[in-house]
Amino acid sequence: MSEPAERAKKLDAVDELAGKRAEFVLDDVVYLDGNSLGALPAVVPGRVEDVVRRQWGELRIRSWEESGWWTAPERIGDRIAPLVGAAPGQIVVGDSTSVNVLKALVGAVRMAGEGRDELLVDATTFPTDGYIAESAARMTGRTLRPVAPADVPGALGDRTAAVLLNHVDYRTGRLHDLPGLTAAVREAGAVAVWDLCHSAGALPVGLDEHGVDLAVGCTYKYLNGGPGSPAYLYVRRELQDRFDSPLPGWNSHAEPFGMRTGYEPAPGALRGRVGTPDILSMLALEAALEVWDGVSVEAVRAKSLALTDFFLECVTAYVPEGRVECVTPVAHEERGSQIALRCDDAGDVMKRLIERGVVGDFRAPDVLRFGFTPLYVGFADVERAARVLAQTLA
Ligand SMILES: Cc1ncc(COP(=O)(O)O)c(C=O)c1O
């Protein structure tokens, strides 16, 4: 047995999260794509069957009350809250991340007030955030300025209305300085909006602690909610009265069944709701979140860093020098839960890796992405992935 393989065995033996793997439906594939679509928690199929057969099939309309369908967006928001460091009453679940980016950004600009005419967006952002920021700027009559996250402090000023940033870069896995950047944005009198898609469920976020104003995130990556599971919107408690959503649907009305002509927003985080919630995927997500019972995000972060450190060590040990280049920062404070390797023929290499039972993904033009979900990825998986990568590249 190679030295890394022996070490993997020892690391798995002392891994306090190792038992969690049994709560997922997995086969002998090394699944390193949980940063794109999380694996299926074993509790979900039975719960979805109950929702469909009993709650919908038998109780039908009664389920809006009796099965708690009506309050699911805020109830599940409160279940996500501790995972992102938020007290209850500040998160609603629903719609896609893209839609929530629009709500958050337009809401942020409206909060910032008339005198501020510039919107800053992470120049390296996931594309949907950039497209929507451009539209939000047009809708609100502001100018959009793309800025690299590190340059945000220097770009802030009296003109800045809001800033949209990604906590972890989807391509490189770089973790941005949420506490520092949020403080800088707020000090400039602007509103900070964070996209947590690649951090929630993988590392501590500390929304309340760091004074984040608004945040959005998806639930199908590290939160394992399933394909297209609904996203969430966080609005800091002190700002909720001023949150003026660009999508004021009947579900966020103060009196949704009053059927009034004029819109009056509900109090609190409920203002982030729009229309009828997507109950089937929402309740699948609620079941999926049960795997977090008894798990601390700090333990997840510690294991995530150990996994990514170990992967880099194994890649160094096995892969011929110069064949791949790591584009993920080595410093822990700058690393999310993925490793991105630049490689000449990355698309083809990833296809061959998948054929050999190591599933990551490819991002154009030349990046191999490997996501490490501490709840179900072990150290032996990591060693095998690096070994198969080396064989594939040989
Ligand atoms: C950082 C980031 N933001 C936004 C999105 C888009 O989310 P959705 O397609 O659910 O709207 C993604 C999807 O992967 C993402 O990674």
From TrEMBL:
Q: Which residues form a coiled coil?
A: none
InterPro entries documented for this protein: Kynureninase (IPR010111), PyrdxlP-dep_Trfase (IPR015424), PyrdxlP-dep_Trfase_major (IPR015421), PyrdxlP-dep_Trfase_small (IPR015422)
The organism sits in which domain of life? Answer: Bacteria
Alphabetical keyword list: Hydrolase, Pyridine nucleotide biosynthesis, Pyridoxal phosphate
UniProt keyword Hydrolase present: yes
GO MF annotations, alphabetized: kynureninase activity; pyridoxal phosphate binding
Which residues bind pyridoxal 5'-phosphate per the record?
T97, S98, F126, P127, T128, D129, D195, H198, Y220, W250, T276
One GO term describing the cellular component: cytoplasm
Q: Describe which pathway this protein belongs to, using the record's wording.
A: Cofactor biosynthesis; NAD(+) biosynthesis; quinolinate from L-kynurenine: step 2/3; Amino-acid degradation; L-kynurenine degradation; L-alanine and anthranilate from L-kynurenine: step 1/1
Q: What is its EC number?
A: 3.7.1.3
Class of this enzyme: hydrolase
Q: Name one GO biological process term.
A: anthranilate metabolic process
Tell me the protein family, please.
Answer: Belongs to the kynureninase family.
The name this protein carries in UniProt is: Kynureninase
Q: Which organism is it from?
A: Streptomyces paradoxus
> According to the entry, what is the taxonomic lineage of the organism?
Bacteria, Bacillati, Actinomycetota, Actinomycetes, Kitasatosporales
In the UniProt record, what gene is named as encoding this protein? kynU
